[in-house]
From TrEMBL:
Recorded GO MF terms: DNA binding; sigma factor activity
Domain RNA polymerase sigma-70 region, chain residue ranges per copy: 31-97
InterPro entries attached to this UniProt entry: RNA_pol_sigma-70-like, RNA_pol_sigma-70_dom, RNA_pol_sigma70_r2, RNA_pol_sigma70_r4_t2, RNA_pol_sigma_r2, RNA_pol_sigma_r3/r4-like, WH-like_DNA-bd_sf
Gene Ontology biological process: DNA-templated transcription initiation
Name this protein carries in UniProt: RNA polymerase sigma factor
Family that this chain belongs to: Belongs to the sigma-70 factor family. ECF subfamily.
Originating organism: Fluviicola chungangensis
Domain RNA polymerase sigma factor 70 region 4 type: 138-178
Chain segments annotated as coiled-coil in the UniProt record: none
NCBIfam families tied to this protein: sigma70-ECF
């Protein structure tokens, strides 16, 4: 059994899809294990932090993959293809919704400031920065936000993002530059020269 498990561990994503297309349940399980968490995180960020909706999207993605594995071109990288499909799923959802941005404001309610031994000022500063950062990211144009999040949250390379979105690497670099410049401007009050922490 261990030898079989080891063999699946050594298979590439593309090999797993081919095996899955042939009815191999273990290959699907391995592929799901590799990417379900990353895909869920992507959908949560893109779908207004709605975890339930995001979980449904992950389920829909893998259901489609099970029933129509031929949709995947095995000459491509599975990872970039997955993000390309996920991106299109989000765009279709945006069209169905009248609102596309998370309008929730306020501090992260899970952030505790009850411990009197902690540095309260530092905690408040961190919470306010987190709130401001999340807000500024939502203010980016969709095309700038998606490349910024795919690069910095999903850890994709510029080449992988370009392949997933089917646009040039130069365009990706340009959008990343714009997004970074916009965020730096919007968060400048939190930069060291503008604030003094204990």
């Amino acid at each position: 059994m261990r030898m079989i498990k080891k063999e699946y561990d050594q298979m590439t994503d593309e090999q797993l899809v081919i095996a899955m297309a042939g009815g191999d349940q273990r290959a699907f399980d391995k592929l799901y294990g590799r990417y379900s968490s990353a895909l869920l995180s992507y959908f949560i960020r893109m779908l207004w932090r709605d975890r339930e909706k995001s979980e449904d999207f992950v389920h829909d993605f893998f259901t489609k993959l099970i029933h129509r594995p031929e949709l995947f071109d095995t000459t491509r990288s599975f990872k970039t293809w997955m993000y390309s499909v996920a991106n299109n799923m989000c765009k279709n959802e945006y069209k169905k919704q009248e609102i596309r941005k998370n309008t929730t404001n306020g501090l992260d309610h899970t952030y505790a400031v009850s411990d009197v031994n902690k540095n309260t000022e530092n905690q408040v500063h961190h919470a306010l920065f987190k709130e401001a950062y999340n807000y500024q990211v939502t203010q980016l144009e969709d095309k700038h936000r998606e490349v910024f999040e795919m690069r910095h949250f999903d850890g994709l390379s510029i080449k992988e993002i370009a392949e997933a979105l089917e646009i040039s690497e130069g365009t990706i670099k340009s959008r990343l530059f714009y997004a970074t410049k916009y965020l730096a401007q919007g968060l400048k009050e939190y930069q060291p020269e503008h604030t003094k922490l204990p």
